[in-house]
Amino acid sequence: MSAIEPPHTPTAQETAIYDALTAGDNDAVEQMRADAYAQNQTMPPDAPPDWVSPAAQFDIDHAYALAHYHDDNEMPEAEREDNTATAAREHNADAEGAVFALFGLEPDAVTQEGIGKQRVELRLSGQGFTETGRIVYDDAEVATAYISAAALSCEIDASLADGTFDVFVRQDGQETEALSFTIEAAQ
Description:
Immunoglobulin-like; alpha+beta; 5 helices; 2 domains
């Protein structure tokens, strides 16, 4: 016999995240994330047993808000597949002759304490990537997953050292400009 879970009651933060997603205001969502992660993540001595850090609470609220947003805005599967196929054709047509460049890194910073695990997935966005592209982290090529001509990913061990490290893509004898990735020491 399985237990029946009580219905989920959204928090004020979850509602604010959902509203920002609905409005297409990704900057507001990222500001909420930054604010949550900037807060003290240490459990107060008088905290209740179900206490979670502000960063963890943001992640929970974001997951619920995103699931709710997708439930409310998901298009039928056939339409979604058609849109994906069209976007892929357009993207592949645009990728031919595209300039090889790195635009973004997500995340661009973590704290060793805040990640709660040793490995961190980095997602790089750019253009002109091919399956021969390799992410270079701290002057060493790392195992790289090719996602598309606009995205690559890798995992790094954030427990080894704190500091700021260069991240770039090396491909067919060329290298992109480097972006910085920061690992802050646990406090």
